[in-house]
Amino acid sequence: MTGSEEGMTAAGARCRTLAHRPRFPNVMPDVDEFLGRWNAPAAPRRPARLLRSADGNINTVGLPGIHEADDVDPGHPQWRAAIEDGVWPLVDTLTTGAWRLVTYDSCEGHAHRSASLTPGRRRVGVLPRSPQEFARAAAALCRAVRAAAPDVPAPVRITLGTCDLTCGRTGRRRPVLDLGLEPAPGTGDDAYFAALHTATEVLADALLAQRPAADRPCGCPAGGRRQ
After folding, report:
1. What are the pLDDT digits (tens) for 58-71?
2. Under 8 Å between Cβ of 91 and 124
3. Is 222 within a domain?
4. Quick one: pLDDT band at residue 1, thresholds 50, 70, 90?
5. Looking at the domain assignment, is residue 99 inside a domain?
6. Is residue 54 part of a domain?
7. Helix axes 131-148, 189-208, angle to 10 degrees
8. Are 67 and 57 spatial neighbours (Cβ–Cβ below 8 Å)?
9. Cα–Cα distance between 63 and 52 in angstroms, integer?
10. In a 3-state reduction of DSSP, which class is residue 161?
């Protein structure tokens, strides 16, 4: 881990809402190329392979479960088509307006028909471009999570975590932020998916009320417990 990456992790460690939640696998073929395209709207883009499974998953093979998906950005002509409908309000909010963050992953959540597959959960992954952006984004996300929590339907809980994204080309690991909507403890999948749309609306509204800012701390109360 480089010094700048350690700085990102250290900044997040001060937030009691932000938990370390490793994801395996969490790999992108070329992180630097992806960020370069994200910051160059006029650069040429290769067509993305977008196939939809019977359960609503969008990936390169059109199958339910976790499979490879092409990495797209707002400058890509297939950007909207590549984002699953249920998670679009969160992705759109985080990549536009006052936020303008880089999202590296998203999922609307899927109640798979096959009993052999674990149901998917709604989530958005954020790839900070610098230690400063990591700190500002983590604090603003914490404020939004704290503000939204009282109004989120009981079957759903909001999670905010950090983990590493590995570059397949270089092997370099970069700290990222993951915002998720998961079943509350003891909640079944039927109740979770029934409440997910409302929970997403509540969280999206809370995000719209916040913005990353260098002079604003996270929303954790002093002495509060980690989520």
Report:
1. 999 888 888 889 99
2. yes
3. no
4. very low
5. yes
6. no
7. 120
8. yes
9. 7
10. strand
